[in-house]
Amino acid sequence: MGKRIFVGNLPFGADDAKLNELFSQHGEVISAEVVKDRFTDRSRGFGFVEMASNEAAAAAIAALNGHQLDGRALTVNEARPRAEGGGSNRNGFGSGNRW
What pLDDT does residue 42 have? Predict the structure, then answer.
């Protein structure tokens, strides 16, 4: 399994293909995904790239952190693992609160 990379401050016009093209210059890309809002289908301004090797990931991070893409400086670093539990229950349902 490869190394997962977080890419932040993406221009809203960036798509999966653009992300793949940018990172493939530094090694084999397994997957590239721009995270989109589920209601509007618009980019949320960040994404994830999985590189085939740790060496390729390190090279991409070093080369692309701060890189200008459509006038925006990218934030590129190693992705942190997802938190267990899936997040908060902000709507109050199932939390034991009575209305």
Answer: 93
**Domain parsing of the chain, residue ranges:** 3-78
The answer to whether the CB of 17 falls within 8 A of the CB of 31 is no
Tens digits of residue pLDDT in 47-99? 999 999 999 999 999 999 999 999 999 999 999 987 776 555 555 555 555 44
CATH superfamily placement of domain 3-78: RRM (RNA recognition motif) domain (3.30.70.330)
* DSSP-assigned letters across all residues of 29-88: EEEEEEEE-TTT--EEEEEEEEESSHHHHHHHHHHHTT-EETTEE-EEEEPPPPPTT-S-
